Amino acid sequence: MQVQGLLLLLALILLAATTEAGKNKKEKVKKDGSECEDWRWGPCVPNSKDCGLGYREGTCKDESKKLKCKIPCNWKKKFGADCKYKFESWGGCSAQTGVKTRSGILKKALYNAQCEEIVYVTKPCSSKIKSKSKGQ
């Protein structure tokens, strides 16, 4: 009988400890204390040059915040780092212009960025002739 009572007491202590730990985690998530829900975020501004680590400023009513952000160094500068597109395959090479073209449809606009719905990109055609090598 004493063993059952001891196990019950141990279970209650363990339950209380895990409940308290869960409360602490929830409090840490909401530590900024902001009740504002309509944040307006600006573009990510790199600390140096045009890519890498930086920050973005946000405002809501009379509050303002800065968030850390990162612009990849291979991003499409024309579209902005906050506009994500789904691109189709490259088209054929144009003999007149010597370039290939493909389009991208907006997939996601981060931080309420102003993005174009469809974008077009071009690149020079390859001068190399690709041949399929046969394994022997």
UniProtKB/TrEMBL annotation:
Residues 1-21 form the signal peptide. InterPro entries: Midkine_heparin-bd_GF, PTN/MK_C_dom, PTN/MK_C_dom_sf, PTN/MK_diS_sf, PTN/MK_N_dom, PTN/MK_N_dom_sf, PTN_MK_heparin-bd_GF_CS. GO terms for molecular function: growth factor activity; heparin binding. Residues 80-135 form the Pleiotrophin/Midkine C-terminal domain. It is found in: Secreted. Keywords: Developmental protein, Disulfide bond, Growth factor, Heparin-binding, Mitogen, Secreted, Signal. One of its GO terms (biological process) is positive regulation of cell division. Coiled coil: none annotated. One of its GO terms (cellular component) is extracellular region. Residues 23-79 form the Pleiotrophin/Midkine N-terminal domain. Secreted protein that functions as cytokine and growth factor and mediates its signal through cell-surface proteoglycan and non-proteoglycan receptors. Regulates many processes like inflammatory response, cell proliferation, cell adhesion, cell growth, cell survival, tissue regeneration, cell differentiation and cell migration. Belongs to the pleiotrophin family. This is Midkine.
